[in-house]
Amino acid sequence: MDRLEKIARELDSKDELKKFKREFIYPDDKLYFDGNSLGMLSKKTKETIEKVINKEWGDNLISSWNDSWIDLPNKVSEKISTILNSYENEVYVGGSTSLNLYKLLLSIIKSNDSIRNISSDNLNFPSDNYICEGICKDHNLNFNLLEYDNNILPDIDKLEKFINKNKGIIVLSLVSYKSSFRYPINRINKVCNDNDSIVIWDLSHAIGAIDIDMKKNQIKYAIGCTYKYLNGGPGSPAFIYVNREKQLNLESPIKGWFSHSNPFDFSKNFIQSESMNRFSSGTPHIISMSTLDSSLDITIKATTKKLENKSINLFNFFKEIYNDRLINLGFKLITPMDKEFRGSHISIVHKESWRITKCLTDPESSKQIKIIVDFRPPNIIRIALTPLYVSFIDIYRACTRIVKIIESKEYKNKDESKKIVP
Questions:
Q1: Can you name the residues that pair with 91 across neighbouring β-strands?
Q2: Do residues 90 and 81 lie in contact, with contact meaning Cβ atoms separated by under 8 Å?
Q3: Among 40, 48, 104, CA closest to 288
Q4: Which of 46, 197, 311, 374 is 20 to 30 Å apart from 234, CA to CA?
Q5: How confident is the model over 295-352, as pLDDT tens digits?
Q6: What is the distance of C-alpha 373 from the center of its chain?
Q7: CA-to-CA distance for 124 and 127, rounded, in angstroms?
Q8: What's the distance, Cα to Cα, between the start and end of the chain in Å?
């Protein structure tokens, strides 16, 4: 047995989270490393959806609103609060990440007429920056974008000076989607507090894979999606987090039915809910909310502390393989080595990254297992270390396949046309 394979099997035998892989529908013909874009389907979620469609919708019909549906958003919000270690009344679940960022930004701006700047950096997810720039254009504010020279890793000293110069609101991804760099959250929070600025954290590439403590880190505002490491399913509802001390003066820009304090009074006048339901702009999406309700239980049971610890161990094992077998094949690891500055995915670059990705996901031989990773321009291969279902032997098998693709020059059989999926 290969030395590294032996290490992988020993690590798997000691993994206290290995039992959770059995809770997912994991195809026999694939290795799945794309949980930073879409988490896998859990068996419990499949059962839940069948119940919602067949029993609650099919048989119970409208009665299901009173029986269970009306309380579902708050139930899911409480579960996300548990994962974030926040108070139960600080999370709203519904809508998309972009819509939630839009609502949160405008509500903060309306509560503080001294804000003239919304800022971000070029490592933030592009759609966040689209929202920021659009709001600035519509409301005569300044949009400021910090460009880092390498377009991969931030310069935190430069970021601090940027915040000081452009006081207002800054939107940042806690974990960068490109490199998996994790921003020093306490340091940035302090800089913003010292400079009369507000930071909104996008937790999309972080929640469910690393341990985030909203109370300990004194986070005031955040948004995030739930279809990545939380395994909520494609298009599962996103969330807004607002520290309870900051909620009082916020007024959602969309006055929807369920954002009313008493929606079933059907009153002529709008009275905003005093809870986080103020951000609800319409009827909850029950089916997608139900998938999230069931998937969150797995994360809560595993605990984010243990999930992050396994993520660290998975990375360390990958690094050993990288140093032994990948670095001499033209690969470069751009993910930070320091666990304090890293999320839960690996980013490697190679001049043939696109064609390597195509070999992994679409092998020429039907006997070869498909290895699902994702590609980000211009030359990044992202490998998600989803602690709930990625094993050490999975890492070994993926790396062994990558080595074979390079050494056999299999990638030369793939064309260079690109069709990138989310």
A1: 241
A2: yes
A3: 48
A4: 311
A5: 999 999 999 999 999 999 999 999 999 999 999 999 999 999 999 999 999 999 999 9
A6: 16
A7: 8
A8: 37
